[in-house]
Specification:
The protein has 2 helices and 3 strands. It is an alpha+beta fold. It has a domain of 51 residues. A hairpin with a 5-residue loop joins strand 1 and strand 2. It is elongated.
């Protein structure tokens, strides 16, 4: 019984810690510039959760640029 309680407690604490962990992430985007040339930019997302950084990375855009392919590193 004690062993089961300890295991469940460790799993619960781990889940809470992992879900709210904030750290620095980098979004790498390849795109086509206004002039039609391929470009790459890295955008930092500091002190963010993985979910926040992933959403921001997915939605990252530059005015006039096209063909965005952004991935969180």
């Amino acid at each position: 019984m004690k062993k089961t309680f300890v295991i469940l407690s460790v799993l619960a604490i781990s889940a809470i810690a992992m879900s709210s962990c904030k750290k620095d992430y980098v979004c790498e985007c390849n795109y086509t510039s206004v002039l039609g040339t391929p470009e790459r930019v890295e955008v930092p997302y500091n002190n963010s959760t993985k979910s926040q950084a992933k959403d921001a990375c997915t939605n990252y855009r530059l005015p006039g640029a096209t063909n965005f392919d952004c991935k969180l590193k």
